[in-house]
């Protein structure tokens, strides 16, 4: 193999496609959620990826979650919840701070993940530890959240509205079509019933005519 080919391969392997962002691999369970955050920033406001403050805050969050890789598992929200700010962990709410301490999970209104402490461990001690660890994560993420929320949250709300509107409009049109078919069925039933009623009325009318008796000359 020539030195030129070796140099090209080494150069290619050193290219940082994330421009300094420590986007983790999925095999690191505690940091999977940060992959979602990076992709959402890139989608909603890619200019934020050029902001050093955003990069530092993001990398600090990744480092923070790595500290808990043995006891924490986070995940990338499913496609259904991609833009749902209450289900994918992007938004921070005051009432979320208390919910994050719940055992065994972090809460689906905050970070999508759960703590994986040994079942035989002291529950009181676990709760204290979860409180401390959760505060550490939330406080670290809060710095990043403040930097991205004005661009990310409105974008996600708009996307969620567009997706839900399109989905619900399709549902409503299908319902209209289905009930319009019901109307046609009912109208036919009404026509058939009216025809039967008219037939019975004719028979009643004939029965009310004077009977023609047989006459003999």
Produce a short descriptive summary.
The protein is an all-alpha fold and 217 residues long. The protein has helices at residues 3-13, 32-44, 52-66, 96-99, 123-208, and strands spanning 72-74, 113-115.
Description:
The chain is mainly alpha-helical. The protein has a domain at 14-163. Helix content is 59%, strand content 3%. The chain has 5 helices and 2 strands; from the N terminus they run H-H-H-E-H-E-H. Helix 3 packs across helix 5.
What are the defining features of this structure?
217 residues; mainly alpha; 2 strands; 3% strand
Secondary-structure-derived class = mainly alpha
- Strand fraction: under 5%
* Uncertain runs: 5-13, 94-109
SSE ordering: HHHEHEH
Biggest sheet overview: 2 strands, antiparallel
Query: Residue share in helices?
Result: 55-70%
The beta-strand count equals: 2
Indicate the overall shape: elongated
Task: Output the radius of gyration.
Answer: 34 Å
Mean pLDDT: 83
Q: Gap between N and C termini, in Å?
A: 132 Å
Strands ordered across the widest β-sheet: 1-2
Determine the number of helices (DSSP H or I, runs of at least 4 residues).
5
Oligomer: single chain
């Amino acid at each position: 193999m020539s030195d030129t080919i070796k140099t090209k391969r080494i150069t290619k392997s050193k290219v940082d496609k994330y421009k300094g962002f420590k986007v983790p691999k999925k095999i690191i369970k505690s940091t999977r959620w940060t992959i979602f955050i990076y992709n959402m920033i890139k989608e909603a406001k890619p200019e934020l990826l050029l902001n050093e403050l955003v990069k530092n805050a993001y990398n600090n969050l990744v480092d923070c979650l790595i500290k808990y890789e043995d006891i924490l598992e986070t995940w990338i929200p499913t496609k259904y919840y991609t833009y749902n700010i209450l289900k994918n962990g992007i938004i921070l709410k005051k009432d979320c701070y208390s919910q994050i301490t719940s055992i065994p999970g972090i809460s689906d209104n905050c970070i999508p993940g759960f703590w994986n402490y040994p079942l035989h461990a002291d529950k009181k001690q676990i709760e204290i530890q979860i409180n401390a660890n959760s505060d550490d994560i939330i406080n670290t993420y809060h710095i990043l959240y403040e930097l991205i929320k004005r661009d990310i949250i409105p974008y996600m709300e708009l996307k969620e509205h567009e997706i839900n509107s399109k989905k619900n409009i399709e549902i409503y049109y299908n319902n209209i079509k289905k009930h319009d078919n019901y109307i046609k069925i009912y109208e036919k039933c009404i026509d058939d019933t009216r025809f039967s009623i008219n037939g019975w009325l004719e028979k009643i009318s004939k029965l009310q005519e004077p009977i023609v008796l047989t006459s003999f000359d």
